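Closing statement on the cobalt (II) ion sub-project.
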Amino acid sequence: MDISLKSPSEIEKMRLVGDLTAKVLEMIKPYVVAGVTTSELDDRMLEYIEKDLKAESADLGYQGYPRATCISVNEVVCHGIPSEHQKLHDGDIVNIDVTVRKDRYHGDSSCMYMVGNVAPRAKELCRCAQESMYAAIKTVRPGSNLADIGDAIQRVADRYRFSIVRDYCGHGIGAGFHEEPQVLHYRNDYDLLLEEGMCFTIEPMINAGTWKCRTNRKDGWTVTTADKQPSAQYEHTLLVIKGGCEVLTLRKDENFPRIITHS
Ligand code: MF3
Ligand code: CO
Ligand code: CO
């Protein structure tokens, strides 16, 4: 397997694009309200990425993907295509997933937004997804095993009695959008020791009901839960550093450290 270790100059680019990615998710927050269409949100983010950040959306045109971001509402697990026919409603839980490219390097992050009054169970689902991602991030350091990530996520999901999507995983990231390794979000016996300079995402998708998913046959992208119960996801891009890791896509609204070191 060929997992790239980033050089100091590559790390600088990853830090920069990671910050830009976080900024997109911060910028859009006040606009995620009842009545807005997901297409309007996508237009606003694309304009911000291109005009303000002088960067590109890596999603746009990726394997034919038609829009700049993925916006996944309620039972949509991932790859929701922004649409002028889809308005947000009170009580919706919304994942926005953005991948920014700048100077050839990629930052990939997503988070949940709640529209108005959200049902307690849906809130709990979002909390579980975020908590499981944070628990997984805390395992990341040189010498830890990639499989510790799935283990940490599984512990949190089991405690909440929610299920973990198995069809999609995190991924190495850098000059490539999706690089090796694959980062599994459930308990697994993938044996890979982490090293300083690795960059990858952790992006657990947590379902309220079954973990099973369906892909829309007409658009080829939209993934929903098989039982139409809601799904939630959070994603960060990480860099393995001496003694721990750095969250390259950390936002200001998060109550979590940018740099986690152990011992
Ligand atoms: N951002 C997604 C990920 O986390 C990938 C989206 S690909 C797209 O890996 F084409 F659907 F945009
Ligand atoms: Co990703
Ligand atoms: Co993503």
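The radius of gyration is 17 Å. With this model delivered, the sub-project is considered complete and its resources will be redirected to Aim 3.
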